[in-house]
Structures are given as C-alpha cells and as structure tokens.
UniProtKB/TrEMBL annotation:
Negative regulator of class I heat shock genes (grpE-dnaK-dnaJ and groELS operons). Prevents heat-shock induction of these operons. GO terms for biological process: negative regulation of DNA-templated transcription. The keyword Endoplasmic reticulum does not apply. Keywords: Repressor, Stress response, Transcription, Transcription regulation. Belongs to the HrcA family. InterPro entries: GAF-like_dom_sf (IPR029016), HrcA (IPR002571), HrcA_C (IPR021153), WH-like_DNA-bd_sf (IPR036388), WH_DNA-bd_sf (IPR036390), WHTH_transcript_rep_HrcA_IDD (IPR023120). The keyword Signal does not apply. PANTHER family: HEAT-INDUCIBLE TRANSCRIPTION REPRESSOR HRCA. It holds the Pfam family HrcA. This is Heat-inducible transcription repressor HrcA. It comes from the Bacteria. It comes from Jannaschia seosinensis.
Amino acid sequence: MIENAQILSEMNHRSREVFRRVVEGYLGTGDPVGSRTLTRTMSEKVSAATIRNVMQDLEYLGLIQAPHISAGRIPTQAGLRMFVDGLLEAQLGDEDRERIEATVGASEDDVSALMDRVGSALSGITQGASLVLSPKREAPIRHIEFVSLAPDRALVVLVFADGHVENRVFQPPPGQTPSAMREAANLLNSMIEGRTISDLKALMTGEVAARRREIDTLAHDLIEKGLAVWENAGQDGERLIVRGRANLLEGGTDAENLERIRLLFDDLERKRDITEFLQLTEEGEGVRIFIGSENKLFSLSGSSLVVSPYMNADRRIVGAVGVIGPTRLNYGRIVPIVDYTAQLVGRMLSGPRE
C-alpha cells in the first residue's frame, strides 16, 4: 500500500483541492459532496465532468467513496487519515481558548476536582464524550496485571493499596507472548507488597545485577580451564560457549556448574524483560488521533479519538485528555482544543516554577 505522504506528493493541485473540499464538506454537514457542488466552490473554473474524472481517480486510490449509486462522495477511513496527517489546518479560536482557560485555569488544590472540571469542559466545548486519564500515581501497589491487546499493544492494570485502579496502554518488547506477560505479573506480585513501580524497577535492576555476578563467578573457573569462552561479552545477546563437553560430563562438578549457569541465564533474561515492562508502563505517547477501526482500544469502529498527554514539572507524561466522537469530527477545531487543554492541565499540576 502506498504511503499517504507519497500519494499526497504525487497529487496535483486540482486533485488536492477536490479531495480537501470533499472531506471538509462531509465533516461540516455529514452529507456526500457532489461534482456540481464543487464547481461552485473550486478556486479555478472547471466543469462538473472534469471534477467527476478527478473524483474517480481519488476513488481508485481508496480516498473517497460513493455511499450509494448516483450520490456524491464521502471520504473513506484512509482518506480521513490522509487529510488529518497531511492537509489539516488546525487553529484554536479565541472563544474556545477563553472557555478552556476559564474552566481549567481556576485555582484548585484538589486534583480529582480539576480532572472532573476538565472532563466537563471538553464535553461542553466540543459536544463530544471526553476522556480524562488522571495523573499517574507513585504510590504502593497491591496488584499488577499485564493484558495483551494485540501483538504490538498491551495493557497494564495497576491496583493501588488504597483501592485506586489505573489502566495504562504500552507497546511491549517484540516477541513477548501473553504467557510471558502472565509469568512477569506473577513474579512481580510475589514481591509487590508496599512497593511502588519505581521500587520494583530498582529491585529488578538489583536482581539482574546479582544474576550477572553469579554467572561471572561460576563461569570464571570454566574459562580458566579453557573449557568455555564468552561470545558477545557484556551485551544483551551474550552467550557462554562451552568446549570439551565430554570432559565436563566426566568432571561432575563442572557439569553441575554449567547447568547452574544455564538456569541463571534463563532467570537473567526473564528479569531483564520484566525490568523493560516496568519501564514501558511509565512511558506515554505524543498527540494521537485514532480514526474509525484504528480505535481498537474502545472497539468503536464508527468513532474517532483525539487524545493528548500532559506532563508534570519534570517533563514526564503523567496522564492524558481527549475527546471521543464520530469519525466526522471537526478535527481542525477539536485537535487544538485537546492540545491546549493538555498544556493547561500540565501547567496546573506542575505549579509555579522558581
């Protein structure tokens, strides 16, 4: 499939304008846009027949479609994605800015009350459903669970000691299976009592270092005897290459050490994976727009989600705000509203800088 950026670069000025006006007309009214309508709005004077030819080309590229015979055209999901990525002109209006500032910018020490106001403000201003993810907590955890959503998407469910529950979406390391995630969660839950995520990360980092030292100690004697050698020493993919395996089997003690090293390597890799899981649960993504079936998290194929993270004083992503609505959202208005709201929330939570 040709990338959207390549398609856009290969479209001439007339094709771009027809495509843009079809999308903007549909987003504004929800109705298909016909060739005769376009002849009255195009920047250059062209016939309806010429516009129909351009629309056929755009339909062939999968960017627009006819909802039924003899109708005008509406954008496809792929067309909406290309419009948002390449042609969207987003600008925050003065009235929207003032309403956001008046609601979000009020003095408030209670974070929960602030988040409630943010949700109400976004719903009222955009006439859509709001999404507010509260600041990530750094508090003791009672239970942790990893849930696979897709090969490249996973959910971590955090149950805090006070009963608060948080769900965070992250991209797991390549090749991780649902069973590996369950094992990681089981191990973490066995040592989780009274600890925060940062505590767990520090604990797992210490475990990795300890396993590494045990391996080095056991391997040292084998290497001294010339029975083994490191390959890719010090790297994640390092291996202990064993020579003279027959001699090891006769020696007894060396064979036991080799089996111990193998088990330690397995444990080391598992703990490295868990450390990476914990790191990924603290990370977030930039401003995202999910259109139609891209919005798998909510299983709402006919909807769109515009979401933006907000940061604390240390420039760490701690939560997100967003708007959910139909695929024909007014993206040019909604995107800057969500983005500006996220910036304001971040400043409110960060407090005054010295």
